[in-house]
Design a protein that fits this description.
2 copies of one chain form a homodimer. With about 450 residues, chain A is α/β, with parallel strands linked by helices. Chain A is globular, with a radius of gyration of 22 Å. Chain A has 14 helices and 13 strands. The first copy, chain A, has a single domain, classed as TIM Barrel (Alpha-Beta Barrel), CATH 3.20.20.30. At the A-B interface, helix 2, helix 3, strand 6 and strand 8 of A face helix 2, helix 3, strand 6 and strand 8 of B. Chains A, B: Belongs to the NtaA/SnaA/DszA monooxygenase family. Chains A, B: It comes from Streptomyces prunicolor.
């Protein structure tokens, strides 16, 4: 393999005992996994054995579900990823954090700190956080409107980018003899006064190895795609069919070009929930075992909330009601809403069947098959203009990640799609084939070729 | 040594190249130390070799000083301590975080996460953050008044304590057969509506090994002492004389008793900046070397800001002006202001001499001497009602901590004042001889003897 071959990017989306809602009930699963560092260290090292580009943690600042239904709560992602930074060497570390419920100064500082500590491996999955539950944990009575959340997110990014650039790379002089530690002319306080934020001063941490964390985004609504085209360097997306994925891919690349950016500088990673078996029948049996462990009354409860229906509206063995609200009226996870409704209509699913399909990946593509079949699907999407890589979401953890790395990764390597080793240490952004961003305040003539902290 | 002997508590206060402002100019010092994880790992392991109770990082959400003057910026403490958690086994990890510029939900979550990841070794140095610079990084035009900052801090603590107790210790049931993961009756959403905060929902992380982080405080103003008496379990303080330290110690213990708490449950740790030499003359020479590296014009600049004087007011070889503002009018670091003014008046110091004295410890006691002399001072304060332990602030790092651990610690051990080994793993709170706090929502009759996460 040479650097000229287009390479597949793999991200491991880690979630306690796995992405299938019933995974915690399997005999092999540790129901305390979500608060055990060793569980995550094991997963991170497995992903590194599989030469993944990165790993990723979702998050929201609220207690998601009823405790009765499934594992709830999680270690805060930036904290957990910092611990994983010291247990790994190469893999990127992508944390979800909300622009609606953080201050730019605090969050920019934390990501810069993680980027320094990890040697340039930090990534930020930028979310605007749907739901009234989160709003009520931060002094608001109601969820901010979808459009307002995105307007705030855009201003948040502008402020954060100013903060990350507020130290030029060569601001530290370290002249002991003269007693001059730094060059104040290389510090650029944002002096930002905007609609949502006022931030005067420079960040209190030097510019990090990557300049700033890899910017990742996962919203697929109109607002979400516009935001991604402007800021995102990698996009996670839920797509059920090759056709839909191709359309999304093409659309996002065009929007990115229209925003004045190189479309190669945004990587599209659909989610896939692989359920593996050494034969197709074994894979289907593994899938069935998970479905048999679903508590369907819980599934109805969650589906009603996603569709913004009153409790006890849905019947398990009937299709979805015909008169659902239009996507426009949804203030939460708009694109997920549409995907779920379209999936149910397209495949004429009953509520029970729909819950079974969603139980695995919450709208992401669940694919049960042999390692060859999973590799085939990945290769098809990758070579047919639907993906630059994949967000791998094992149904059960750690076993599902073990199986993927032991059985699918070797096939992808044999086909020349995936690196066989990491090689020298690089930053996460280099791993994704993206350039280190220039500092917006540095004059081109004085820009240092060797950033101080790399 | 038995458990019945009163034992000295030692905290290592880590600060880039050391607490002396000129430390970075020494040939041995690494001027990039403040952003190098390996530097802090080395310090943490040295402190652990010295069987310290804890280590500690100061912080403020603003760029402190002019870069020209001395190392500026720092890794965010909670992030750095999480990385250190994985590089150490026993030592407590105390992070500074501001109640004025954080949300209770986010901060409570981060501390709970660090407490889980570290196996119960998290501590929180609660600060209200003086200064307009910080305020302007968080949307405010002016610094909130001192009293208002403390009122907000008290409400912040009340909310955080509710959040940390929002999961009872036995909320996780993990009944795979029944498909019931947790017991929703053991979840207690704060439903807090107050002056500064509204926080409805339960925390999204289970109760941590310590219940919540060790609560530490370092403000010595009237507001600060009242706050400490109500909430703090350990207090860092700057005291220049045995008499002052005894008075502070007695006062704080009385206030704690008056607040209805056991005065044994608040540990008082004055700061000391040891400058060691194998002879007294060598120690003085080491101190002189540091003083010779002070840039006095920088010192004047900082002193004028502390004293809230206009620039170019102070003359280097004259005493402080007679007509300084009263402490009442100071909205920033009130107690530090008074300590500095009293030090200058008591010892009839010129501005130059005062800067020399402050350069070492910013108001903390600098003590130059042999290891025996430093151990004597520590023993005297410890046995004469002035301290439960010490906040050790080496003038130069890492060498000053090495010297303390190699030469002072063995003397303290020989005298039976300090543990010779850690013994079994314990929480930070147990290390300080404090009980694990009960959950405010758990009925005594149903309280579990074995918390789920310990």
């Amino acid at each position: 393999m040479t650097r000229h071959t287009r390479q597949l990017h793999l991200n491991a989306f880690l979630m306690n005992t796995g992405h299938h809602e019933a995974s915690w009930r399997l005999p092999e699963s540790n129901p305390y996994a979500h608060v055990e560092l060793d569980h995550y260290i094991r997963l991170a090292r497995t992903a590194e054995r599989g030469t993944f580009d990165s790993l990723f943690l979702a998050d929201g600042p609220q207690l998601w579900s009823n405790l009765a239904q499934r594992p709830a709560g999680a270690l805060e992602p930036l904290t957990l990823l910092t611990a994983l930074a010291t247990a790994t060497e190469h893999i990127g570390l992508i944390a979800t954090a909300s622009t609606s419920y953080n201050s730019p100064y605090n969050l920019a500082r934390k990501f810069a700190s993680l980027d320094i500590i990890s040697g340039g491996r930090a990534g930020w999955n930028i979310v605007t956080t749907a739901g009234a539950e989160a709003a009520r944990n931060f002094g608001l009575e109601h969820e901010p409107a979808h459009a307002e959340r995105y307007a705030r997110a855009a201003e948040f990014l502008d402020v954060a980018l100013k903060l990350w650039d507020s130290w030029e790379d060569d601001a530290i002089v370290a002249d002991k003899a003269a007693g001059v530690w730094g060059d104040d002319a290389k510090i650029h306080p944002p002096q930002h006064q905007g609609t949502y934020f006022s931030v005067a001063g420079a960040l209190n941490v030097p510019r990090s190895p990557q300049g700033y964390p890899l910017l990742v985004q996962a919203g697929s609504s109109e607002d979400g795609k516009a935001f991604a085209a402007r800021y995102a360097e990698a996009v996670f997306t839920a797509q059920q069919t090759l056709g839909d994925a191709q359309e999304f891919y093409k659309d996002l690349k065009s929007r990115t070009a229209a925003a004045g950016r190189d479309p190669e500088h945004i990587k599209v990673l659909p989610g896939i929930v692989p359920v593996l078996g050494s034969t197709e029948a074994e894979a289907r049996a593994n899938e069935r075992l998970l479905e048999d462990n679903i508590v369907y009354t819980h599934g109805v409860d969650r589906l009603e909330r996603l569709l913004q229906l009153p409790p006890n509206t849905l019947e398990l063995d009937a299709p979805l009601p015909a008169d659902l609200p239009p996507e426009d009226s949804i203030e939460g996870a708009k694109s997920r809403y549409t995907l779920v409704v379209e999936l149910a209509r397209r495949d004429r699913l009953t509520v029970r069947q729909l819950i079974g399909r969603l139980g695995g990946g919450r709208g992401h593509l669940t694919f049960a098959g042999t390692p060859e079949q999973v590799a085939d699907a990945i290769e098809t999407w990758f070579t047919q203009g639907a993906a630059d890589g994949f967000n791998i979401m094992p149904a059960v953890l750690p076993s599902g990640l073990d199986a993927f790395v032991d059985h699918v990764v070797p096939i992808l390597r044999t086909r020349g799609l995936l690196r066989t080793e990491y090689g020298p240490r690089t930053t996460l952004r280099e791993r994704y084939g993206l350039p280190r961003p220039a500092n917006q305040y540095t004059r081109p003539t004085t820009q240092s070729a060797q950033p101080a902290l790399v």
